[in-house]
Amino acid sequence: MREDRWTAGGELMRTGNPPGWSRFVEDTKLVSDNQEAVETCRHTATRTGKDQRCTITVSGPETAPQPQQRRSD
User: Fold this and answer.
1) Angle, CA 44 vertex, CA 42 and CA 49 arms, to 5°
2) With left for phi above 0 and alpha for psi between -120 and 50, is residue 25 left, alpha or beta?
3) Is the pLDDT score of 23 beyond 80?
4) Which of 14, 17, 20, 32 is the most buried (most CB within 10 A)?
């Protein structure tokens, strides 16, 4: 593998556990798409010391990310 460590690690996870990798990618997008709401909830939870319920937006299937094609070197 001639990749940087981050890319190589991702490739190992993707090939070692494809369903787990897909879930990781989807979960990362969900948090990224809702970064402002998540940060607000984290701030409130830290300030109050209590768990917080947050409202987020979940993309429908038509806007969900498409799987990336593997590079062939």
Assistant:
1) 95
2) alpha
3) yes
4) 14
Query: Crossing angle for the helix pair 18-33 and 35-48, nearest 10 degrees?
Result: 80
Tokens of 29: 């997008």
Of the candidates 20, 27, 24, 16, the residue with the CA atom closest to the CA atom of residue 56: 27
Contact by Cβ (8 Å): 54, 38? yes
Distance CA 49, CA 41 (A): 11
Which residue carries 């990618």 as its tokens?
25
pLDDT tens sequence across 40-49: 999 999 999 9
**Residue ranges of domains in the chain:** 5-58
What's the pLDDT score for residue 66? Answer: 54
